[in-house]
Amino acid sequence: MRVFCYGAGAVGSLLGGRLSAAGHDVTLLARPDSAAALRQHGLTIALSDGSALRALPRVVTEMAEASPAAPPPDLIIVAVKGYDTAAAAPEVARACGPRTAILSVQNGLGNEELLAAAMGAGRVIAGSFTLSVAMAEPGRVAQHTTSGGLALAEVETSGGDRLARLVRAFEGAGMRAVACPDWRAMKWSKLLLNLLANASCAILSMSPAEVFADARLFRLEQRAFREARRTMRRLGLRPVDLPGYPVRLLCGAMGLPAPLARPLIAARAAGGRGDKPPSLALDVARGRSEVAFLNGAVARAAAEIGMPAPVNALLASTLEGIVRGVLNPAEFHRRPEALLGALRSSSARVRQG
Q1: How far apart are the first and last CA of the chain?
Q2: Are 128 and 187 in contact (CB under 8 A)?
Q3: In 177-309, which residue ranges form alpha helices assigned H by DSSP?
Q4: What gap in Å lies between CA 133 and CA 141, rounded to an integer?
Q5: Most buried among 122, 188, 210, 320, by the most CB within 10 A?
Q6: Distance between CA atoms of 321 and 313, rounded to whole angstroms?
Q7: Measured CA distances, 353 to 5, 296, 318, 348, 349 (Å)
Q8: What is the spatial distance between Cα 194 and Cα 81, in angstroms, rounded to a whole number?
């Protein structure tokens, strides 16, 4: 299979590297600093058991470097942040052949729709990636956990065996892979996982363990989760289990009273992430944020069906304000009372309005 990875961060590098090591023809689109290391040393995937995989994928820094004489890819994996999807979509569309499939392994909601608008829903496959990975250094990606994998679902049913072939390809590359019948339910289920101790950690500069140790902040997390779950229910979407993550059990646990739910959720969330900081906290350090595709997407979806989602709306607007420089991050740095106070003020304004 000819594979092009649009984005060679941790997720794109791991997927592309595993497929390359399994014998597939893989090209990575990487930043110049990463490309230099990849060309010189190849790609190393450091596994959680101390072993490592080596791969030698082809590396380019621009789409134009891909040879026009080469056959088009069978699969393009889109592994950029959500805020880069709109710019990536036209480039990805130009690289497609008649039978090229597009796999989005991005977090949050809305990426598949952007890709489908650019090249047709029939090409697009939604992916939910549930391993914890991080770039240790250019050319070296660390896989922190083993229990996760990749869930796949077609945005528009093809009626063929395309999904089954992709599942077999990823399984043959040493990954756990499953096919799901409903792509929206799958993406919302992954969103539930991504909401936990993510935006709050980025806003407060606190670790997930610290957030879950604070009963007030856990209740905030629980409210945000329940808002998303209620929105799913109103949209007619049922949670689905993902590789390594019993999402349906998680929903049940988050429905318990906070004192019972907190120890269950804290232990599971810490184990699933490994030592990796939350994704939104990493984004803040880079001056960008995907929160519009996570908490912001929940708030928008809820508003469209006439439901309130005040906690998700506040988390999204606060983090976006910090990233844009509208809000001073020092006001929230390790100050839970500031975030909780902002929620109370926001709720009061809604009641008065």
Answers
A1: 57
A2: yes
A3: 183-195, 199-204, 208-213, 215-234, 247-254, 258-273, 279-286, 295-304
A4: 7
A5: 188
A6: 12
A7: 48, 21, 20, 9, 6
A8: 14
User: Residue 174: how many CB atoms within 10 A of its CB?
Assistant: 13
Question: pLDDT tens for residues 122-175?
Answer: 999 999 999 999 999 999 999 999 999 999 999 999 888 999 999 999 999 999
Where are any strands of DSSP class E within the chain? 2-6, 25-29, 43-46, 52-55, 58-60, 75-78, 101-104, 124-129, 133-137, 140-143, 150-154, 177-179
Q: Are 244 and 128 in contact (CB under 8 A)?
A: no
The dihedral formed by the CA atoms of 26, 40, 82 and 201, expressed in degrees to the nearest 10: 130
Name the phi and psi angles at 68, rounded to 5.
-65, -20
Q: Is 28:58 a contact under the CB 8 Å cutoff?
A: yes
Options 3.50.4.10, 3.30.465.10, 3.40.50.720, 1.20.1600.10; CATH for 2-181 is 3.40.50.720
Torsion of CA 23, 161, 5, 131, to 10 degrees: -90
Domain ranges of the chain: 2-181, 189-352
Determine contact, residues 340/228, Cβ cutoff 8 Å. Answer: no
Nearest Cα neighbor of 189 from 134, 156, 231 is 231
Q: How far apart are CA 265 and CA 46, in angstroms?
A: 28
The reported pTM is 0.95
Options 1.10.20.10, 3.40.50.720, 1.10.1040.10, 1.10.150.80; CATH for 189-352 is 1.10.1040.10
pLDDT digits (tens, 9 = 90+) for 250-294: 999 999 999 999 999 988 776 555 557 899 998 888 899 999 999
Tokens read off for 6: 């649009």
